[in-house]
Amino acid sequence: DQLVESGGGLVQPGGSLRLSCVASGFNFDYIATGWYRQAPGKEREGVSCITASDGKPSYSGFVEGRFTISRDVAKNTMYLQMNGLRPEDTAIYYCVTYGSQFCAGYPSFWGQGIQVTVSS
Question: Tell me: the pLDDT tens digits for 58-114?
Fold first, then answer.
């Protein structure tokens, strides 16, 4: 089982990035998937999640309206489109899976993480 993130990097405030997560050993038809992040000196926090059965997205308040989560079930790939990035979005972003089709509880599996830095 593996989750591999890509698409991170350095971007100026107000800019955009698109993170991708390719999953192997998981079936997006049956498990919810999402994104977490960890900023320097802070605890990990949930960013967004998408349910398995109907692809219903949910977002934390601090990214609502700026970030969009999506998935391609056929490719077992999940995305996070991040627009209007702010310096406080700087963090390591993790692709995660959950133990059920719902975005409930703590993630059961984590990717290795990818750095996103927002700075001028």
Answer: 999 998 899 999 999 999 999 999 999 999 999 999 999 998 999 999 999 999 999
Q: Which residues contact 49 (CB under 8 A, 6 or more apart)?
A: 32, 33, 34, 35, 57, 58, 69, 98, 103
Token duo for residue 13: 């405030």
DSSP state of 74: G
The CB-side HSE value for 70 (13 A sphere, CA atoms) comes to 9
Cα–Cα distance between 25 and 12 in angstroms, integer? 35
Rounded Cα distance, 97 and 28, in Å: 9
Q: Give the HSE-up count for residue 33: Cα atoms under 13 Å, Cβ half-sphere.
A: 30
Q: How large is the average pLDDT for residues 29-58?
A: 95
Give how far the C-alpha of residue 20 lies from the chain's centroid of Cα atoms, to the nearest Å.
8
- CA 82 to the chain's CA centroid: 10
